[in-house]
Amino acid sequence: MSSLRFAYWVPNVSGGLVTSRIEQRTDWGYDYNRELAVLAENSGFDYALSQVRYMASYGAEYQHESTSFSLALLLATERLKVIAAVHPGLWHPGVLAKLGATADHLSKGRFAVNVVSGWFKDEFTALGEPWLEHDERYRRSEEFIRALRSVWTEDHAELAGDFYRIRDFTLKPKPLNTPERPHPEIFQGGNSTAARAMAGRVSDWYFSNGKDFDGVTEQVRDVRAAAEAAGRAGRVRFGLNGFLIARDTEAEAREVLREIVAKADTEAVEGFGSAVKQAGRSAADGKGMWQDSSFEDLVQYNDGFRTGLIGTPEQIAERIVAYKRLGVDLFLLGFLHYLEEVEYFGKRVLPLVRELEAQLPEEDVELGRYVPVGDVSSLAG
Ligand SMILES: Cc1cc2nc3c(=O)[nH]c(=O)nc-3n(C[C@H](O)[C@H](O)[C@H](O)COP(=O)(O)O)c2cc1C
């Protein structure tokens, strides 16, 4: 039975993980992030996810570029896997594949990508790239992932796609093929119907925005059904976002949440809310991320409060393991005061999670369903 994995959001964008004027003892710069990455791997974290954003927006004035920042964190650590977020549309998949192969060699097999289809139209406009309609963005992302996998695993890759063309392209060296995975893992961010279907067909990991138990259950069901329909049952793992506030008492933790929301930067939260709802609107069934997010939800821009990881270490550990029973394989966590809270999580929450996991009856846990991919040839191209 696999144990739960933990990732954290790299704070490589200024302003922290909540759009609030509450004090946030965190920093988007490299020195802070290097110290954080080392602390995180020593505190039980398996992955770090760097964000991609190219220009100022909604309370996030400064940003470090995702792939280069990820590489710097990989070189500063020994075990942490670092996931670089990338936008199809701003990268050619062959060029990213080349970067990924080098990053994977430099880090001995710890590079991964998060393919995000995008929400920030102004960023594409500013860079002179067309902003595709919602489901077209997913068609392009799927083609991007197929191209990436093909170039990472095959010689003489060929693709005559609607968005990318590759002719007789052989990458040397290929990324590492480790016992854990045949090429860098491919995560995806996006929760709409198109996103769920794409995950089933091509992704290794599906990342959900913050959700309660019902929201997770619905998505796990849909993603599994999509994977099964694509002949990939058991091959897509599920990651859930959550903003974690662990304090010695529940009252203290709840007070922190209250203060975050009370001190929200209202203008930035409302601006972000209208941009993302607009971005998802062309998903006709209204099932995209953020479509039913309230003002309070949007103060953490990935709906992280909804997961409810707010309380004492015991309460949070129980909730985390309850999510595991619903099919969550990985938690993607954000914090207010990163260094202090990552350490507290490693010391106070994670040991309780491991104790509770050990008590779960084998048949109660669906995790065993994950089948490591040996032969990827059917997925490429
Ligand atoms: C875990 C996660 C991480 C994301 N990271 C980024 C990012 O770094 N940059 C970005 O522009 N969008 C990011 N997104 C947002 C996606 O680009 C996309 O706009 C969003 O998932 C909405 O897609 P949907 O309409 O399919 O639900 C992320 C989404 C998730 C779930």
From TrEMBL:
InterPro entries listed in its UniProt record: DMSO2_SphG, Luciferase-like_dom, Luciferase-like_sf, SsuD_RutA_monooxygenase
An example molecular function term from Gene Ontology annotations: alkanesulfonate monooxygenase activity
Protein's UniProt keywords contain Flavoprotein: yes
Superkingdom assignment: Bacteria
Transmembrane listed as a keyword: no
GO biological process: alkanesulfonate catabolic process
Domain Luciferase-like: 6-329
Pfam families documented for this protein: Bac_luciferase
UniProt protein name: Dimethyl sulfone monooxygenase SfnG
Lineage of the organism: Bacteria, Bacillati, Actinomycetota, Actinomycetes, Kitasatosporales
The encoding gene: sfnG
